[in-house]
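Journal club prep, shared notes

We agreed each person brings one worked example of a sequence with its structure written out as tokens. Mine is DUF1849 family protein. I'm keeping it raw so we can talk through how to read the token line rather than staring at a rendered picture. Sequence first:
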Amino acid sequence: MAILGMSAAPASLAALLVLGLGAGGASAAQLLPHRAVYDLALDQATQTDFDSIDGRIVVEITQRSCEAYELDYRFVARFLTDRELTVVDQHIELEEPVEGESLRFSSKSTVDGLGEQASAGTATTRDGRTQVDYREPDERDVDIPAAAFPIAHTRNLIDAARSGAFVYETAIFDGDAEAEKETRSTSIIASLAAPGGSQATADETAVAEERQEDGPAGKEREGTPAEDSAGARALRDHERWRVSEAYYDKTGSADGAPDFTTSYTLYDNGVSDDLTMNFDGYSLTGSMSEFTPLGAEDCKPSER
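Then the structure, token by token:
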């Protein structure tokens, strides 16, 4: 998603095919530094024996200078069956300059506090290629076709939505330990209520619904954030879209099915809410329970 899809698949969870908004290059979209908490719950379990799943995502986006964004992302979930409880914990830290041409990444994940898996390094995009330099778990270099990084992907997706695009595709790299997978993202976009209260046209909504698999892209859920919350006040006058996003890699299934899909409401300042994450055999829903706008440098547009 744009950024939220990072919890269990390539991020983020996010390139009418908007070829002019590919990897790299400056975006006009401005992201709001903020901290958001999302409560997760089991939506459906069709091919698993999970009795319940609950968890939380905490996302903090900051901009300590006009040159770069920083992202701190934490995903913790409890998976309960009739025999055992399993706790998954993932922590990701990213630093990405505003021009979107480089990335510093670090991630750690554990299951029941054991077997820590780590990935860390840097990535740079230039001349149509992305060079990934890992320092963890092993020192190695990987060269892949040019890929957008998470913050740039979110900003480009907002640009695409503002331009009226229905579909946005891009290659994406979010710090995954296996850059060789060459992950790609396809997003289906439907406009929701605009600041003046107008809705997406019937044609726009119909096209979006035909092109996505996990429910009407134009349908907005109720209740998050609460109408009297800081989140509601900060987001009330912002344009927003329903996005359904699918992630693929070149080693994926033979039938072309995505490795992971997610849908969410995306605001024009980069905040996301009302998410659904679809995994193999089960899906999770998430709603914003806390929202705090954070201070930012007073950067001129040319500096962002």
